[in-house]
């Protein structure tokens, strides 16, 4: 599964604007903390994973989400 593409689709559904790359800062594409939490909850449900509070607090870019998901699905 291409986690980046899945995450990108989810962020666009939450209202992300502009070009979204792995290096995109979530705030710069219009994703706030509530949008992020909604996206994380969807990922947790879809992939049967659980993000730690520490991981959530460290997420600033799209790639941060991708890396966290890849670590959790190992």
Which blocks of ≥5 consecutive residues have pLDDT under 50? none
Number of DSSP-assigned strands: 0
Give the ordered list of helices and strands.
Answer: HHHH
Summarize the amount of helix as a percent range: 55-70%
Structural domain tally: 1
Average pLDDT level = 96
Structural class: mainly alpha
Distance between the termini: 13 Å
Radius of gyration: 11 Å
**Assigned CATH architecture:** Orthogonal Bundle
Shape: globular
Q: How many helices?
A: 4
Tell me about the biggest sheet? none
What is the CATH level 1 assignment? Mainly Alpha
- Proportion of strand residues: under 5%
What name goes with the CATH superfamily?
ACP-like
CATH fold title: Non-ribosomal Peptide Synthetase Peptidyl Carrier Protein, Chain A
Supply the key terms.
0% strand, Non-ribosomal Peptide Synthetase Peptidyl Carrier Protein, Chain A, single chain, mainly alpha, 74 residues
Explain what you see.
- Helix 1 (3-13) crosses helix 4.
- Helix content is 58%, strand content 0%.
- The chain has 74 residues and is an all-alpha fold.
- It contains four helices and no strands.
- It is globular.
- The two termini are 13 Å apart.
- The chain has a single domain (3-72), classed as ACP-like (Non-ribosomal Peptide Synthetase Peptidyl Carrier Protein, Chain A, Orthogonal Bundle), CATH 1.10.1200.10.
The gist of it:
The chain is 58% helix and 0% strand. It has helices at 3-13, 33-47, 53-58, 62-72.
């Amino acid at each position: 599964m291409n986690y980046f593409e899945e995450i990108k689709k989810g962020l666009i559904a939450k209202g992300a604007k502009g070009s979204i790359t792995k290096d995109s800062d979530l705030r710069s594409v219009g994703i706030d903390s509530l949008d992020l939490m909604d996206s994380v909850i969807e990922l947790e449900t879809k992939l049967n994973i659980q993000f730690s509070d520490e991981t959530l607090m460290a997420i600033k870019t799209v790639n941060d989400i991708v890396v966290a998901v890849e670590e959790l699905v190992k």
